[in-house]
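Can't paste images in this forum, so I'm doing it all in text. The chain is below; anyone willing to post the predicted C-alpha cells underneath?
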Amino acid sequence: MFERRRIARTRSGEIRLGLAREERALLGAVMDGVRRRLDDDPDDDALRRLFPPAHADDEEAEREYRDLVHEGLLEGRRGALRVVEETLDRDRLSAEEAESWLGALNDARLVLGTLLDVTEETYAAELDENDPRDRELAVFAYLSWLQEQLVEALAAGVD
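Text version of the structure:
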C-alpha cells in the first residue's frame, strides 16, 4: 500500500524519521486536531476510546476513578502530543521521544477511528474512492502503518 519504510532504528539506538515535508505537515495537522479536542472538551464523544470506563457497572466508582486519574491521563496524552509537535521537524528521535510518538499516534488513530466508526470489516476492505470517508480512512491507514513501523523500530532495540 505504502512505499519505503519511514521509521527505523539506527545503529546508535536513535529512531530515524524519513518523513517527507507533506507527511510532517499531515501529522502536525492530525496531532493539532487531537490536541484541540482534548483542550476544548475532554468529554467529547470522539475521545471516548482514550478514556474507557474502569467501572462501567458502577457509576459512583467510575466517578471516583475519574476524579483520581482523569487529569493525569489527560496531561499524559497532551504531553505526548507536545513531544510530537516539538520534534516533528527532526530526523532523529530518542527512544523516549519515540515512545511519546507511539502514544500520540495511537491516540490519533483511536480518535479518528471513533469519528469514522472503524470496525474490523473496515480493516479488511479496500479503500473506495466513492466512499465519502475515503481520505480520512487513508489517513487512518497511514497512521496505522507509521505506528507499526515505530513499534518495530522500538522493538529492534530490545534484547
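The chain has a mean pLDDT of 91. The radius of gyration is 17 Å.
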